């Protein structure tokens, strides 16, 4: 993956850069959410050692792309603070391109930039891997399967599989329909001309799919059709409030990290 050099910490520009990376992966067939020749999708979860949870939305996809390209064996990442906590520093066998930059909104609702590092991007990978005990949600549905039958289900099902271990299959027809829709989203996002306001940004498209992945997991668990929801799920109000609080704490921590970085 072509990493940004001399990066100025401009979240809006980085979001477009990352969208372009995903577009290229879709067009050349290397995107991790695309199926193999047998129609099987083989997602690999990547966990954030800072939080113990799987990395969300398009940031997960970017890390999966980096992991595959570099041949990294680990499926965990950390931030600058994580590397310091492990007692090591950025470095290793790579000559350049350390880290994967990601965009988030800070406590002031402003775009900001953070960086994830795989253990292999540090001088002592084994020390970073020792923090694996922080992982909170190992996959639990490896014995379940789900067939993606429409575009609406495609990306939510992919994120659901990353989180739970569900086996995924999809037809060539649905895959092509999904690729077409995603490329429309990305190209509109990258357009220097007037954008279609009814089309979401790439980040919003992936974030919404990640949020809806819980509906796929629930359906597979109960062996029922997927019931999509808009906004907050009535059955998960308390859980959502807890997630918001955790996200705020995480953002505050990243804000402090950026000051150190």
Structural class by helix and strand composition? mainly alpha
Strand content: 5-15%
N-to-C span: 22 Å
Question: Unreliable stretches, pLDDT < 50, 5 or more residues?
Answer: 1-9, 231-245, 254-261
Computed over alpha carbons, the radius of gyration is 18 Å
What is the residue-mean pLDDT, rounded to a whole number? 84
The helix content, as a percent range, equals 40-55%
Gross morphology: globular
Helix-strand string: HEEHEHEEHEHEHHH
Briefly summarize what is shown:
With 261 residues, this protein is mainly alpha-helical. The chain has eight helices and seven strands.
Kindly describe this structure.
With 261 residues, the chain is mainly alpha-helical. Helix content is 47%, strand content 10%. The protein has helices spanning 11-28, 57-70, 80-86, 125-129, 151-164, 172-190, 202-222, 237-260, and strands spanning 40-41, 47-48, 76-77, 100-105, 111-116, 145-148, 167-170. A three-stranded mixed beta sheet has the order 1-7-6. Strands 2-3 form a two-stranded parallel sheet. It has a two-stranded antiparallel sheet with strand order 4-5.
